[in-house]
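Pasting as-is:
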Amino acid sequence: MDYPITRHPEFRYKTEFQSHEPEFDYLKSLEIEEKINKIRWCQTANGALFLLSTNDKTIKFWKVQEKKVKKISEMNVDPSKAVGNGSVASSSNSSAPKPYLANGGCTDRLHNSSGNDFSIPAGGFPSLRLPVVTSAETSLVARCRRVYAHAHDYHINSISNNSDGETFISADDLRINLWNLEISNQSFNIVDVKPGNMEDLTEVITSAEFHPNQCNMLAYSSSKGSIRLIDLRQSALCDSHAKLFEEQEAPGSRSFFTEIIASISDIKFAKDGRYLLSRDYMTLKLWDINMDSGPVSTFQVHEYLRPKLCDLYENDSIFDKFECCLSGDGSRVATGSYSNLFRVFGCSPGSTEATTLEASKNPMRRFVPHSSLSPCTP
């Protein structure tokens, strides 16, 4: 919105930094990869950028800010009298009487400092010359403000910051925790789907997202294709949901792959919080949070792969996860696919827009027919 509609936004390199390092959990004898699972922007302040990043176990809160690097171009040392490693030659004589200070201290260490590179001549400097400081170019510096660790037994799949600017959630397969940005050693468990007996486990949490405007509302999806909307005002532990969104399968359509491809890999709220977008293996679904009877729109993403589900299961491609997003004005939705391709659909009433774009270094957009999509390289 900052530019006319004819101009496309251009992204240029800004900076980079190492967020996570490989770790080893000695209690569980488990290697923790440095691979980043999620990144979320936080509210900016004083021209600095703030973001949350997480790997499988540890969440970090980063501040990225421009810093001016100052350099000293001239020292208060007369170059003509410099000797050795930049020190000034001393004219003091070892046989000369040692000057004493009024309180009884001796300045002998100032005159004869054989262990130091710098010495002050007898009588001091005739004049004080201050260093001349020149400011060089500005550089972006990333600093880790907080580390939120040791709160998840399973791999973290989601983080989402709250609209209140003070809290955020992190989710793994069985639990969702609520954090305060300023408190790194304490979190509150608000959702726990772990059964008493793990053999009774039927579904896991796959994604979680805060409502963009209502700080008390959040949604999370499951491997069974359902989305639950919960209200933090109801209870401290949100065992029950305010609303449940799931699509009933058509009679006779169930197969071995039905539950696998129904698993939701990502959910996103629209900017106004009215609609919720979900992504499963085959489709994108747009939900109205005021209507839990079914999705208002369904967009076919991988329908051409339906005859190949057996092959996809054998090479584990059927378990690949894809993310989704909505445009700022809510008129389009997008999701990733295979072979560096992503799909864009129009979701305005009456829209039939369905575009396939390729993510490449060449910004020219071109149409790619479905037959060229291959599930070999997610």
